[in-house]
Queue: 2 jobs
Job 1
Amino acid sequence: MNISDLSVGEYTSAIADRSPIPGGGAVAATTLAQAAALGSMVIAYSRGKKAFAEHDELLASTDERFQKLRIEALELAEADAQGFKALARLYPLPEDHPDRISGWADAVRGAILPPQVIAQRALETVQLCEPLLGRSSKMLQSDLVIAARLAAISAEAAGWNVHVNLPALSKIANAAEEAEKLKSETQTRISEAMRISSIIFDRCSD
């Protein structure tokens, strides 16, 4: 199943099914894609207007990044699904099974990496939204706030998918410190994304 090829109805029906894929990881990624898309829309309605001519370089470069983030987010949805599948194949095996022994560490890290990157990109998306305050059309303020809020929620959602696999990572030989570092980094990203999105919310509410 390629999420990018599904209609909204098909995608939400697939989430509602009694199947782990697509699940929270896909939702975190597609929420990020929507945040980036809204950011691009804000810019599309702002570029070419005399009031924002002096900010055109910023708007252009920001939109270019939003476009790349939107595409990457959908790719991360697929990567998250593949990471989950690899780990799910090993979970039922006894801990002393040769396949589990040889593949467990890579599978755990493989399941953590996509949501880790989603959280990183979500924070970046919120950070890209902030400079648009006062440099984009006020008619699109609601969309800018929604973009920032969605990105922050994406970071939080992805953080949970990192968090759920940290106990397994911490039990891998010499990986306890790695797990703690990931936990701290992810929480920092979530907090920062929430903080900036709140600034945008407050500024647009004035």
Note: The mean pLDDT is 95.
Job 2
Amino acid sequence: MGRARRLLWLLVAVVAVVAVVAVVSDSRSEPQTTATTQPGGTPVERPCPEHDGPSEPSVEGRAEIGEPLPAVTMPTVDGCTVSLTDYLGTPLVIPFGASWCQPCYVEWPALKAELEARPGELDVLAVNFREALAADTGSFLDEMGAPWQAIDDADGEVAQAFGVRTVPTTFFVDAEGVVRDRIFGADAEAIGEAVDALLAESPAAP
């Protein structure tokens, strides 16, 4: 009887060890979200652009190649209020992205390089794409070292006006506010070529 009891306890112990190992293995194999695996970077100063227009959020019209930008006034993830008209007079790049968008970690550094290579010749205004928490986009901007503002478009209203269904999607707008080009996906070379073409064909600032 004693021997049988010892065998029973040994069996229970083995089963318990196997269960613990299985639980640990499962917890280690669970995929983590980008927000937890991508650490935030050093905070970057992103000054609000000058804005003299309306303060109430609004989106009117649709973005089409060769046509003026839609009328958009929205808050940014840093608490500014911006309108797309605030950027008239300087060629503008509008990248749609999010902290969970892995290709954006390739595209946004390329955009930063283009911006730094052309000081005063180009502006960037990002749009967060259905990011649930504005703080996640802010941390993503800091990690990328991005000095531009990002419109808070958690509900996708701006994305709908631009016909954006996936990210990264990037629009190139001349100094008069006319959409000149659009790129899908992250391609640093294509971005550089699109910026060159934009600056070459963009009318001079008024």
Note: DSSP finds six helices and nine strands in the chain.
